[in-house]
Amino acid sequence: MNTTFPIGTKVDLVLKAMSIRVETLGIIRATYPFLGMGISFSDTEPEQKLHLQQLLSALRSRNRFLTSDLAQDDEKKNPLAAADPKALVDEIALFFQRNIALPREAFYQIAKRIRRP
């Protein structure tokens, strides 16, 4: 996103993908101008949580990063398991300041360097 909201801003979220729609409230937790925002869900209704689970399940079946093999908290199988999310996004933003594309191997190398505190 070119424009991001300040941290702490409350937003109404509507996620639509694969014929599934999720509506909930969110709070901006991190901003990365020209890259995006980190948003946490808040006050999500039970029906919307069910829709979100359906969406995640549908994405899991289509996305190699979310398959059960990689979703385990095993660093050898999934370098993202121990990565600090904010530090990882910060490193990726720095990477894109110097590069046009982020190959998968470079992504994994960054994830392996960034560890949760």
Strand content: 15-25%
Please describe the biggest sheet, giving its number of strands, its sense, and whether it closes into a barrel: 3 strands, antiparallel
Structural class: alpha+beta
SS elements, strand count: 3
Radius of gyration: 16 Å
Characterize the overall form. Answer: globular
Low-confidence regions: 66-73
What is the H/E order?
EEEHHHH
**Helix fraction?**
25-40%
The DSSP helix count reads 4
Instruction: Report strand order across the widest sheet.
Output: 1-2-3
- Could you report the average pLDDT, rounded to the nearest whole number? 81
Amino-to-carboxy terminus distance: 28 Å
Structure write-up:
- The chain is an alpha+beta fold and 117 residues long.
- Helices cover 38% and strands 24% of the residues.
- The protein has 4 helices and 3 strands, in the order E-E-E-H-H-H-H.
- The chain has helices at 46-62, 68-71, 85-98, 104-113, and strands at 10-17, 20-32, 36-42.
- It has a 3-stranded antiparallel beta sheet with strand order 1-2-3.
- It is globular, with a radius of gyration of 16 Å.
